[in-house]
Design a protein that fits this description.
With about 210 residues, this protein is mainly alpha-helical. It contains eight helices and two strands; from the N terminus they run H-H-E-E-H-H-H-H-H-H.
């Protein structure tokens, strides 16, 4: 992914953030690495529509690309929820990490915060990728949805790109540390899966 970012710059940020709006694609890593590229501390420069740059202009281009990409993906997710409705979510939701429990939590979220659930969700790690489809599903008005998503996405993208800018030449150490996080996540998933299989077998044997 970092190679894709280094080679394609703002276009890669746009694509990955659009995907992340519906399906988690490590938006944190995308924007932090983009900011690190923009700082000029890495060997690569930022591809800004064919012009290779570093500095403040590159930082703004990366952050805006992430903001717009996420907004476009979010609108697509809203449309899926609005037009696909509950039949779509019931059929394909698990593949998008939107199982019944998560949909129920999203419904409570919207019932509690109303339209502001969009803004709160957009600046909340992890939850931000699971707001788009439920927003359409639970009939969030498109106009306010776009405005609140744009605000939340801009805060997220500019802040994380600024973190990457600050990390700069220390990126290699950050990337190395992040790999330990990935290992921990995978280990947790494996443990949970093993527990689920054992529990399922026990329930079958008892029935």
């Amino acid at each position: 992914m970092t190679s894709f970012l280094a080679q394609n710059g703002v276009l890669a940020v746009f694509i990955l953030m659009a995907i992340d709006a519906v399906f988690p694609a490590f938006s944190e890593l995308v924007m932090v690495y983009g900011g690190a590229l923009a700082s000029g501390a890495l060997a690569s420069q930022v591809d800004v529509f064919g012009s290779h740059e570093t500095g403040t202009g590159a930082y703004i281009a990366i952050a805006l690309s992430g903001t717009v990409g996420y907004l476009v993906g979010s609108i697509a997710g809203w449309a899926i929820g609005w037009y696909g409705g509950h039949p779509f979510v019931e059929r394909y939701g698990r593949g998008l990490h939107l199982g019944p429990d998560r949909v129920a939590r999203a419904e409570r979220w919207f019932a509690r915060f109303g339209s502001w659930a969009v803004l709160v969700g957009r600046v909340t790690p992890v939850a931000r990728s699971f707001i788009s489809i439920p927003a359409g599903l639970f009939r969030a008005p498109l106009a306010s949805y776009i405005v609140l998503t744009a605000i939340g996405s801009a805060v997220w993208a500019f802040a994380l790109a600024a973190v990457g800018w600050g990390l700069g030449s220390n990126w290699s150490r950050f990337d190395h540390a992040f790999k330990y996080v990935e290992v921990a996540v995978v280990a947790g998933i494996v443990i949970w899966a093993a527990y689920w299989v054992v529990r399922k077998r026990r329930s079958i044997s008892m029935s």
